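To illustrate the input format used throughout this study, we show a single complete record. The first block contains the structure-token representation of the backbone; no residue identities are included at this stage. The design step must infer an amino acid for every position from geometry alone.
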């Protein structure tokens, strides 16, 4: 952890207390209100030099440190996407700070399009694996040998099992599948969706994969949940767009909050 991250960790601890965080959370488009479930201290990204200013509506650019269900968490209410400035490593400093606050695990959430008719809008999917369809990587330019991160177990089986068990115990339907990262910001074409589907993807989105790679680079266990906000291009007559994503995200967000509240005490 470099000096910038160390300074920010001390700043956050001065504001929110020095007790170690157990779990970090990243909230996706339309899911930022989940930070309100945290009993703790919100710190705007503008107070944290080097943190990205979330340039997409539907995000809440605040780091909130506190308790959910008795578990101390650090919640990143907004993310920077690759498509905003062409920087796949935009979330590296925030994740270094979360790690520096003591987190051992990271749970990422996102809004995604479904490639599976059995997983309609409003569903939730636990990500089992991903396809980096964009080809970009947040570790390009990293000089250390640590850049060669093994990704066989990118999505921790134990964390995913805890999320799925929590979903079952609360009666919350939760699918499981493979997420494909497409760079955006334009939505995919029907041909691209057919290609990704042939490759084995169950859902598609414009985030998460860089953060999972960074999490593994930093030694964090990782898991991810997708809120399905639409059927992917060519699979329905939905009108795709960011406003549609924001309108549909709360359908899955409520389910994700239920799952997280039940799962966190056991993580």
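Output of the design step:
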């Amino acid at each position: 952890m470099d000096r910038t991250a160390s300074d920010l960790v001390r700043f956050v601890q001065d504001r929110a207390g020095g007790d170690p965080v157990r779990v970090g959370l990243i909230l996706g488009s339309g899911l930022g209100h989940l930070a309100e479930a945290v009993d703790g201290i919100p710190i705007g990204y503008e107070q944290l030099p080097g943190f990205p200013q979330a340039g997409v509506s539907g995000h809440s650019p605040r780091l909130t440190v506190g308790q959910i269900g008795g578990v101390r968490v650090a919640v990143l209410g907004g993310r920077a996407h690759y498509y905003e400035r062409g920087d796949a490593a935009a979330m590296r400093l925030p994740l270094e700070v979360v790690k520096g606050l003591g987190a051992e695990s990271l749970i990422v959430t996102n809004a995604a399009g479904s490639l599976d008719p059995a997983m309609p809008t409003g569903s939730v999917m636990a990500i089992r694996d991903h396809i980096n369809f964009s080809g970009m990587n947040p570790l390009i330019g990293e000089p250390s040998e640590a850049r060669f991160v093994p990704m066989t177990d990118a999505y921790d089986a134990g964390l995913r099992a805890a999320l799925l068990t929590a979903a079952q115990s609360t009666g919350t339907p939760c699918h499981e599948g493979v997420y494909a990262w497409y760079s955006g910001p334009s939505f995919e074409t029907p041909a691209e969706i057919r290609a990704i589907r042939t490759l084995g993807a169950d859902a598609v989105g414009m985030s998460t994969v860089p953060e999972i790679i960074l999490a593994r680079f930093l030694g964090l266990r990782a898991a991810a949940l997708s809120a399905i906000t639409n059927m992917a291009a060519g699979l329905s007559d939905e009108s795709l767009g960011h406003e549609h994503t924001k309108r549909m995200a709360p359908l899955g967000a409520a389910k994700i909050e239920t799952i997280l509240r039940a799962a966190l005490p056991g993580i």
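Structural context for interpreting the output: The radius of gyration is 17 Å. DSSP finds seven helices and nine strands in the chain.
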